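Loading example: each entry is read as two labelled lines plus one structure line.
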Amino acid sequence: MWTRALVPFISIAVTFLLTSILILLAGGNPLEAYYYFLIAPLSDKVSALEVLVKTTPLLLTGACAVFAFTAGFWNIGGEGQFLAGAFAATGAGILLQGVDPAVAIPLMILVSFIAGMLWILIPALLKAKLSVDEVVTTLLFNSIILFIIAYTLNNVWRNPITGWPQSPEISETAHYLKLIPRSRLHMGFIIALAVIIVEWFVIAKTSLGLKMRALGLGKEAARFAGVNVNRTLFIAALVSGGIAGLAGGGDIAGIHFHLIEAVSSGLGYTGIIVAMLAGLNPLGLIPSALFLGLIDTGAQTVSRAMGLPIYLGDAVQATLLLVTLSMFVILNYRIKKA
Amino acid sequence: MENIFIVGLLAATLRVATPLILGTLGELFSERSGVLNLGIEGIMFLGAFVGFTTAKLTGSLWLGILMALIAGVIAGLVMSFMTVILGVNQHVSGLGLTLLWTALSLFGFRLIFGEPTVMPTIDTFPTISPFEGIPYLGTIFEQRLLTYIAFALIPIVAWLINRSRFGLKLRAVGENPEAVDAAGLNVYWLRTIAQMIGGALMALGGAFLSEAMLGAMSFGIISGRGWVCIALIIFANWKALGVLWGALLFGGFFALQLALQAIGVKLPYELLLTLPYIVTILALSIAGRNVTAPSALLKPYQRE
């Protein structure tokens, strides 16, 4: 089993070797670049906190993917559920003007979670009742919410003065509390850690978790063992969607305070990388999200310090996913298959 | 007036349908061989980038197309390495490759063009009008060569998949790879060829967008067209001829929305754009279990 624990480290090393090619092509020194990627962000307090800020939504979108994938429900719609959460939280936040934070903040959390659940409801129902492939439906719902947000920002919420497609600000009483003054780190980080611990408990210690794991290993075997397949799939999907919604709502209530179209820029998809890197283990999400959060922050440092395109960060993340997946196979440990 | 509107609409439909046809035919090769390629969105983006950049730097549009095709073949090989050779989960590999190709394209674009205030452009392919001077037909068929090629590819691909020896092997490998292996054919190689052809077609669809429609490269150039192709495959029930109707329906819808906007009809066009997706989901729900996906789709093959 010890090789399995080594896979992430070997994968990181291989990823750095591969992406060095890009850095060399761009005329940079790979070692210098990786200093800015991995060390520089941690060397001062401001940027180290920024790593935690970037980690927050990734913990949740990763948790979204782990929960659904564990049950064999291929929720590719984390991006859409994130956006649904952000959209609903913005709407709620605007309406909550003047409402006491003790009421407003729990409401923001609740609304985000419910919005994420609603956004996966139809794919989950279609899968459970009609066996319609969830990959395609969750994917299509990602596009649908983008159009709905674009419509709302271009019409209902368009800023009347600047004309920008940007929603009004949410109520200050609905802002998530700051964890550290004068930083962007907010209580969403604690919420994310709590969600992950609960998720670990549910998957590892409860009968629902047992059923989900059985289902993830194979539908027929699970059915034979007496698992109510449709019910379990449905619950796993809904909770997974809710968690992604929480991530979207948290970014509105904790960072942006208004809605823009680019609010996510792929955080839902990155969550799938986080989940696979964690080997679909909930507790593994913490190091894996921290690492991707570090790369996100580091990409900005590299870009500022060396003038390399910021998309290097995305390339490193995607390469890391593919290398990790390959390494698990090459080192003869197979990640669960659909 | 009404005639001009309808003629313009039909012309736009053919134009908008072109990248959808190319992408969907590419995905068709992939899926009929048993591999769901969610890398399509990224491969189309890569094709758009490589095509545009080559054309901009060399001044040759056709060299751009050639390079896009090569990039697509390489992308197909990588997908094959992940899913056919290693047998890694197809959903996650495909999505990962979409992220990778998109990131690499954007990285390359910044590296070559920097962050220009005015985006670089190229002159697009000229249109060809075989019916020039004939009313209506002349205007509708004033299209780029690539559009004619895309439409011509539909019957060719249908023949290739349904009638040719290669098609027989391809279908067999997507339905029953064990039997193909038992017959002494190489399952891995057949699926890899399907990935290479598929990748080339997807990249060509992307290159059409940058080299024929826009004459530029933009962040949102594909904006979900690859996902539309994934939906169109189901719509077409994995049949090449079905792709024609699906692409015309989707293309027509996008074109109608654009045309109505152009003549100043006030419409919530963003909401209208969700309709094709909703229709696909409805079609999926109604067809439900009746859709006939290749039996070995999503199943990596391993020799005993």
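Chain A is about 70% helix and 0% strand.
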